[in-house]
From TrEMBL:
This is Methylthioribose-1-phosphate isomerase. The record marks C148 as: Transition state stabilizer. Belongs to the EIF-2B alpha/beta/delta subunits family. MtnA subfamily. The keyword Amino-acid biosynthesis applies. Coiled coil: none annotated. One of its GO terms (biological process) is L-methionine salvage from methylthioadenosine.
Length: 339
């Protein structure tokens, strides 16, 4: 059984340290917003919904610890730039704080803690719904390809893209899963393979450059990935390499689905060009888990995310069903209906 990604215990946040998986199972304890922001920045916790949940707890801690709440919110919001779930959770907690800050301190802290727990529990429920709708795109027996880790480890539990595979298995379907290793941080090789094999799935890791050849040689029924931010027109940012995968899928006639909660949509971004992309240290590329794989002074370009244009997306699987073309119109409709 997979250990929980995020736990709230004795009024402390404990995070499964994803930098060490699958070789070591260790938890990092956060007792302040500052410690939580550091854990997000250093990728102890990663994956768009998971960092949103962690930030919510970070602000429950900020409220309990006293000090400048708005500064704590700013610090958390500055921890990673692309996943909009982080900003969504920070705004939700900030609004609640300002609506309750004049109440007796005990009561205000209780409200803040309860809201973070609610965001945590809601995420699991939402992922189950994503799984329910998403599994319908998979055949009774078949194969699918995923990228990075959009699983229980990237969320409060169950996962988005991997939640679709879980729901398919629960519906009695037999799906062989291929996982891209996902250079440079290897979330596919280290996390997705660990998560899926721990839960008894048939999972095979391929190098990122193998994906197109795989599609040409094996019947792949669908590519399903997560997302970090989806613009109003349907363009979707996700882990670097997702865009190439979508191009390969289109060339080979393989349906390409994005699985994400509505909190991943950012209607303030008209298109993918407006999505802020995180650029990370070149050392992530020059080294593979601490081992040098090129000369130290090699120039590298290391965007952590890319944007898949909506024209390559077959559908976006959400907790309110699968959004299909015309994406801009249907995204707007789905979000309005959800309010
Ligand atoms: O850099 P990471 O590991 O946080 O990137 C994670 C991804 O790109 C996931 O696919 C995305 O956040 C969706 S997680 C359900």
């Amino acid at each position: 059984m997979l250990p929980e990604t995020i736990k709230w215990e004795d009024k402390k946040l404990t995070l499964l340290d994803q930098r060490l998986l699958p070789f070591e199972l260790r938890r990092v304890v956060c007792e302040s917003a500052e410690e939580t922001a550091r854990a997000i920045k250093e990728m102890v916790v990663r994956g768009a919904p998971a960092i949103g949940v962690a930030a919510a707890y970070g602000l429950a801690l900020a409220a309990a610890n006293g000090g400048d709440f708005d500064e704590a919110a700013k610090l958390l919001a500055a921890s990673r730039p692309t996943a909009v779930n982080l900003f969504w959770a920070v705004e939700r907690m900030k609004d609640l704080y300002h609506a309750n800050k004049d109440k007796p301190n005990d009561e205000m802290c209780r409200v803040m803690e309860a809201e973070a727990v609610k965001i945590h529990n809601e995420d699991i429920e939402i992922n189950r719904k994503i799984g329910f709708y998403g599994q319908s795109v998979l055949p009774r027996t078949g194969a699918a390809l995923t990228h990075c880790n959009a699983g229980a480890l990237a969320t409060a539990g169950y996962g988005t893209a991997l939640g679709v595979f879980r729901a398919a298995a629960e519906a009695g379907k037999e799906i062989k899963i291929f996982a891209d290793e996902t250079r440079p941080r290897l979330q596919g090789a280290l996390l997705t393979s660990f998560e899926l094999s721990s839960d008894g799935f048939d999972v095979t890791v391929i190098t990122d450059s193998t994906a197109a050849f795989l599609m040409s040689r094996r019947k792949i029924d669908a590519v399903i990935t997560g997302a970090d931010r989806i613009a109003a027109n349907g363009d979707a940012a996700n882990k670097i390499g997702t865009y190439s995968l979508a191009i390969a899928a289109r060339f080979h006639g393989v349906p390409f689905y994005v699985a994400a909660p509505l909190s991943t949509f950012d209607l303030k971004c008209a298109s993918g060009a407006d999505i802020p992309i995180e650029y990370r240290d070149g050392r992530e590329v020059r080294e593979l888990r601490g081992v040098k794989v090129m000369p130290e002074d090699t120039d590298v370009w290391n965007p952590s995310f890319d944007v898949t244009p909506r024209s390559l997306i077959t559908g976006i699987i959400t907790e309110r069903g699968i959004i299909r073309a015309p994406l801009a119109e249907n995204i707007k409709k789905t979000i309005e209906e959800d309010r």
